Amino acid sequence: MSHGPILGIDLGTTNSVVAIADESQARVLPTELGHRLIPSVVSFRPDGSILVGEEARERRLIDARNTVYSVKRLIGRPFSAPEVGRAQSRFAFELIENASGGVVVNVRGETYTLTEISAFVLKEIKRVAEVALDHSCSRAVVTVPANFNELQRSATKAAGRVAGIDIARIVNEPTAAALAYGYGATRSERVAIYDLGGGTFDLTLLELEEDVYEVLSTAGDSFLGGDDIDLVIATALAERMAEETGWNPTEDRQAFERVRAAAEWAKCQLSDLPVVKIEVEELGPDSLDLRQTLDRPELEGLIMEQVERSFDVCREALKSAGLRPQELDSVVLVGGSTRIPLVRDRVQRFFGKEPRTEIDPDLVVAQGAAILGRTISGKSERPPPARAGIRKKTAAELARLRERREKRRANLPKQPAFAPTIQVEGPPPLPPEAVVVQGIQQVAGTTKDEEESLTMEIDSGMMEIDSALTDLDALELDLPDHLMGDVLDLPTMDAPPQIDGAQQVGIGGASQSTESGLDGESLFTDEGLPPLPAIEAPRVSSLPSLQIGGSGERHQRGEPTLGFGTGVDAAPIAPPAHIDLADRPAPILMDVTPHALGIELTGGYSQTLIRRHAPIPTEAARVFSTAADDQEDVQIRVCQGEAPRFEDNEPLGQVELTGLPPGPRGTVRLNVTFQLDASGTLDVKAQEVTTGREQTIRINLLGGADDAELQSMTERHSQLVGADE
Fold first, then answer.
1. Does any domain span residue 340?
2. Which run of H or of E encompasses 463?
3. Residue 652 belongs to domain spanning
4. How many domains does the chain have?
5. 137, 172, 346, 683: which could form a disulfide with 146 (CB 3.0–4.6 Å)?
6. Which residues is 95 bridged to in the sheet?
């Protein structure tokens, strides 16, 4: 059986993306409805069926206890980890400890490891790719946060195995983004990748020398992302409701989940609008509704602390590389959370240069992974195809899918929810001479048959227009008096549930900023970062209008635009959804390990074998001796971290070597070797020097699964969601 192309998969905390690179382009593969973002959500229904993706995300509004999301930030962690404790207080679903000390999800009387949950998402990604390509796909390059440790990387690989995907390479998300941006460049430059996604933040510094990509340093925060920003907003909304009504939504996990969904929607809307109206119907007892307005300055006041935390990580990475912000040539924004104007403004002021956003920050990681997959394919016996065809749905198929979706959503609560599904695959932009005739674009000089064909293409790509028109009915002009002079229209939800956030306009630019005044003395402090200037809400003076064929961002994606009449285009032109690759050399990637790796010594001390930021792949070996007379066996405990005492680092696993020859303390010598591959997976080998007796392990998920358990997971997974044909 043909293995097909090597996919590029961005397995995200909030959303995942899959791409393919052939000999001409790196392109994102759409779902059946044309969406390029696949929610990383799994929901377990009462009838035993399992939903993944958009349908699963919708069930957070009605069945949060049995809907699992954002587990990426916990994968590979023991249950005792403080991050797990923090997550337990946030999630509506239940996390419990299994017999081996790992984390499992308890839903509907069954338990699932986080590896299994991630496997459900990967299986759906694989299905989307196979439907789009009409070809089986079993190999992939998968991305992870740069700050992921060895356990988390191994757990991700295990998830791929359970899902039926051979993960050819694990690559850091910022590094993948750099591959996409720097591909085919002919000059040298130093680049900072500012990656603020749904669950994690990373700052990676790279040196690009034509087709060579060398990582200089990386640092990250595994609990800083869009999820954390949403939680801050939702908590503020809940507290306001408590003041107004005496009832706090945080007292009911399902109710608070609905508030969090509305908070995510509001956050995204406020990247483009000055103020939004949030209405969540029948949220509390006695049919209490949440009805509030939130403007951009209020939002920025709420999330400023989270945004500023990212620059602590930036300073750490810069210090490790021995660089100052002004020594960098460019800064690249990655991750959906970088769409927030406050984030873009603070990045510009910290680094002293306007950040780059030519490639969509939601898509760039998957595209970079696909480019690396193309490189790997080119070295194998099965090179990438010259041009991979992507199957498109007919108008009738899209209509059936849309009808099914609308029937499903009719039973959901009425409220705005989640981030907008802004990534839509549609027909290519029409020529400049196109004109608008009764809402349908017509090109002068076309024949009747050509016109009918063109109309069909538009119909098949613009099925969202009807729902967007329906959403116009949900708009109302009910504002506080002090806002009536500046803003005449607010997005609100009185009609069907706004799950996609169709009222989202394009990405707004950063607000005004000043040049960074950082110097050598103030680089790693808060000095030189002037306070954020007050942001004045733009005046909005016209009613909402549906624009078909405008120059805004949604038109470039083939998606209906809801303009809110700011006097300029609704949005800047969107970056293309593909990257041209023809006639460019394959990249050479030189990555680093984000953590030091070592072993435990007598007395509880730690000895580092592989230093932090060591280039990978790498190998390191040290010779040790026994600590007692006639010692017959030894346990070599492995950790990551740079603390001098072992207990202050994170344990990864252990190697046990038995049958040692008798001898006085210190005379029996052991050679310990660490081998770290290009994916960041660690192999540890211990060998007794005299006899040659040795033991090797691959560091796997601590408290997780061995090969037999992974096989059992794979079999159960196939029974629940079906095996590959």
1. no
2. none
3. 593-709
4. 1
5. 172
6. 105
